[in-house]
Amino acid sequence: MANEAKPCPCDIGDQMEYGGLGQEVQLEHTKAYVVKPSTASDKAIIVIQDIYGWQLPNTRYMADMLATNGYIAVCPDFYVGKEPWSPSHDWSKFQEWLEDKKPTNINKEVDVVLRFLKEQCGAKHIGAVGFCWGGVATHYLALQYAEVKAGVSVYGMSLLEDRYELKSPTLFIFGEKDEVIPLDQVTKLKEKCTVDYQVKIFPGQTHGFVHRKREDINPTDKPSIQMARTDMLNWLNKYM
Q1: Which residue of 44, 105, 224, 226 has the lowest C-beta tally within 10 Å?
Q2: What is the structure's pLDDT at 16?
Q3: Does the annotation count 178 as an active-site position?
Q4: Domain residues for 186?
Q5: Out of 10, 64, 132, 211, which one is annotated catalytic?
């Protein structure tokens, strides 16, 4: 269960003006939303989209929040121009839609983003934060890229065979009422994981609760959302 978060001198977005503080740029074969902090930083976060794509305002809101806390944030189009999922789509076609958008088939795009962050942004410490589809992708990065120093996987977990062999410290955040939590897989982390990790399950929360926009947050959910965002920032600050 979730424990009370430690105090963090950070901006968790509840007062942040919603708008989009960054800009879209071309990164070799794909595009990305990039937002930089007000003062120079050598710390960067790859923000990984959910199924609704890299242009979803909620995800960019999280990138903006990370930038206000001192991180260069880059949210790439991991679908590389392919149409993201839409609430109006037929859910019976979801697996078919997902077929060419596997969150474990992103190495080409990750390599492009890492080059951009190192060579053009001067990043020396790189982490990843992802939501839903992006949570699975973040877990995948933690298995594959030792240079990604910290990960926060929000409502997502890879089911690859080597899923417990984390190379970097990873925080997993879930909502208790999220029907896609792989609880049986989560408990096995304790048995097999050799790097630092943490699993936090927030009582009463549903899928998508952490990256809701300010205007979509109701008073009942606000403490859990604030705590989860604070946990995310504390984790990144600790390991980066």
Answers
A1: 105
A2: 56
A3: yes
A4: 12-239
A5: 132
